[in-house]
Design goal:
Elements: H1 2-30, H2 36-46, E1 57-60, H3 61-65, H4 78-86, H5 93-104, H6 111-133, H7 142-153, H8 156-163, H9 168-189, H10 197-215, H11 221-238, H12 242-262, H13 265-271, H14 274-283, H15 289-303, H16 309-325, H17 331-350, H18 359-362, H19 366-388, H20 391-414, H21 425-437, E2 442-445, H22 458-461, E3 466-470, H23 481-485, E4 489-494, H24 499-507, E5 511-518, E6 521-527
Parallel strand pairs: 2-3, 2-4
Antiparallel strand pairs: 1-3, 4-6, 5-6
Helix pairs in contact: 1-6, 1-7, 2-5, 6-7, 6-8, 6-9, 7-19, 9-10, 9-11, 10-12, 11-17, 16-19, 17-19, 19-20
Length: about 525
């Protein structure tokens, strides 16, 4: 019977995850463009010679394309990955993984390389979430664990995480793993009968290894670790396990020290990097509280809880109050909830404000929020059954509530409430491909203060065999023969560089028909007059 139950559990879990992978592949197929940070993921991982911006020259787009893929014979160059990433503000582990995948598939620049990495870490995260939700502190039943996996994986937030080719799916995996290993270690570190410290070393090393991986994935991991570790240590101190606390602190300090030794730029990024300074300033700015939480709470409500966040929060609060009154709660049992709430507060306070896409910063704790809500609803059903009887009816009611939440999330998926797809770019790239096939030249008027921003529209520019670069600070009219002889020119112009009138003046054309605007760039067709 026990074996049969285990097999049923595994089959159901596998079925849920396979359906979620199919869902991810569906949305992956719909993804038609890239966020500028996604381009940077490929560039940081696979850089060849670097981008150069020269005024009044034709640039071969094949040379740009080589910056996004691994040139054959130049793969598995991880020291270069670390060097390039040291110039930015993130640790390198995610870029190492993406570079590995791109090295296995050289001379290919595809969304599927990044999406495949995210799917892999999403699946690993789902397995960890299931194991975590099955623990007694987090629900303790197969049904609760399967519900948590289903509700998180079928949410618009989870699908958006997979579609965003950055390190957040990987970070989510390490955050979940951090919660799991700390709860697992609490069983041994806090046993009523003390065991020799040497017997605790394997778990201390495991927690340190997770910290090493998480910190080298994203510095925000340290925020979750801080609050998780603080709760873990407080429980040890309250139980007078001072030697165990010292062992834990030593292992974690060693992991962080090893992280900096592996990647020395980490200290510079956090203490002196521009994002580190921005985060510190935002954290200590009390005036931004309303602005920030009025963005992050509604986004989590919409993309994680299908609009039912208030009801979910009420269930959690009621369950915690009842647990406290019955004295059936410990610090460690509250660890996932408290660490997630504090992580959310800190990241919401310090992250960039980018509309709905800011969801990425709090994504790592969203599955923990879902798990806590599922645990609370099942726990309330169990209490009601204990007091009033008819357990099947109460658990059916709990299942119905979770079913409503799942339906709300599924409705969001059905309405394509998934971020980072950029489906409008299908039309833009088709338009560029058509212009290239008609030999209409393409010119880019870039902002000389930030020329790299032209790669926000790289997917469009790469449809041309070459593009003509123009620095608007050079106010002389373009004299290039191909530009002057062409009746029409496709112009991609950075915002704040004079608009269509300046484009016409620089190119010697009479009109510029505006076509679209995206991410700091406007596309227009310059020609002899209105069509």
């Amino acid at each position: 019977m026990k074996f049969q139950k285990m097999m049923t559990r595994r089959i159901l879990l596998a079925a849920v995850i396979v359906l979620q992978i199919v869902c991810a592949l569906y949305f992956g197929g719909k993804k038609a463009g890239f966020h500028e940070d996604e381009y940077y993921s490929y560039y940081s991982s696979n850089r060849t010679a670097g981008f150069y911006y020269d005024d009044r020259v034709w640039t071969d787009t094949d040379s740009w394309l080589k910056e996004f893929y691994v040139v054959r014979g130049e793969g598995f160059n991880f020291p270069l990955v670390h060097l390039v990433q040291s110039w930015d503000v993130h640790p390198p582990l995610y870029y190492d993984v993406l570079h590995f995948v791109c090295s296995v598939t050289p001379e290919i620049f595809s969304k599927w390389q990044g999406i495949s990495v995210n799917i892999a870490f999403f699946v690993l995260g789902q397995l960890v979430l299931f194991a975590l939700a099955r623990r007694k502190e987090c629900g303790g039943s197969d049904a609760a664990a399967l519900c948590a996996v289903a509700l998180w994986g079928f949410s618009p937030a989870a699908m958006s995480m997979i579609m965003f080719i950055r390190m957040y799916a990987m970070l989510t995996f390490f955050v979940l793993l951090c919660a799991l290993v700390h709860l697992g270690a609490s069983d041994a570190f806090m046993k009523a009968e003390r065991i020799p410290l040497r017997s605790l070393l394997p778990q201390a090393v495991l927690m340190a290894a997770v910290t090493l991986g998480g910190f080298l994935t994203h510095y925000y991991y340290a925020v979750f670790l801080f609050f998780t570790g603080l709760i873990f240590l407080l429980e040890l101190v309250l139980k007078k396990r001072i030697k165990e606390a010292a062992l834990y602190c030593g292992a974690q300090a060693g992991a962080l020290l090893l992280s900096v030794l592996i990647y020395p730029s980490a200290a510079v990024h956090i203490l002196r990097g521009y994002r580190g300074r921005e985060a510190q300033e935002a954290f200590f700015d009390l005036a931004n509280l309303k602005e920030r939480f009025s963005l992050f709470v509604p986004v989590v409500n919409e993309y994680v809880f299908g609009g039912l966040f208030a009801a979910a929060a009420a269930a959690v609060i009621l369950a915690v109050i009842l647990d406290i009154r019955k004295r059936s709660v410990t610090l460690c049992s509250l660890m996932p909830l408290l660490a997630s709430v504090f992580y959310f507060m800190v990241t919401a306070k310090t992250s960039l404000l980018l509309g709905a896409s800011s969801l990425r910063y709090v994504m790592p704790v969203c599955p923990l929020f879902v798990m806590v809500v599922v645990s609370a609803i099942f726990g309330l059903a169990g209490r009601a059954a204990g007091c009033l009887g008819r357990p099947s009816a109460w658990y059916a009611a709990a299942g119905a509530l979770l079913g409503i939440l799942l339906a709300c999330n599924a409705y969001g998926l059905g309405r394509d409430k998934v971020l980072f797809l950029y489906q409008e770019e299908k039309a833009y790239t088709a338009e560029a491909a058509a212009a290239a096939s008609e030999n209409i030249p393409a010119a880019v008027i870039y902002n000389p203060a930030s020329p790299y921003n032209m790669f926000r529209i790289a997917n469009v520019l790469l449809k041309y065999p070459e593009v003509y670069l123009i620095d608007p600070d050079n106010t002389e009219e373009v004299t290039d023969g191909r530009i002057q002889e062409s009746l029409r020119v496709m112009v991609y112009q950075a915002d704040d560089t004079g608009g269509g009138a300046n484009a016409c003046r620089l190119l010697g054309k009479e009109s510029a028909e505006r076509l679209w605007n995206r991410d700091m760039y406007t596309a227009c067709l310059a020609g002899p007059g209105e069509r």
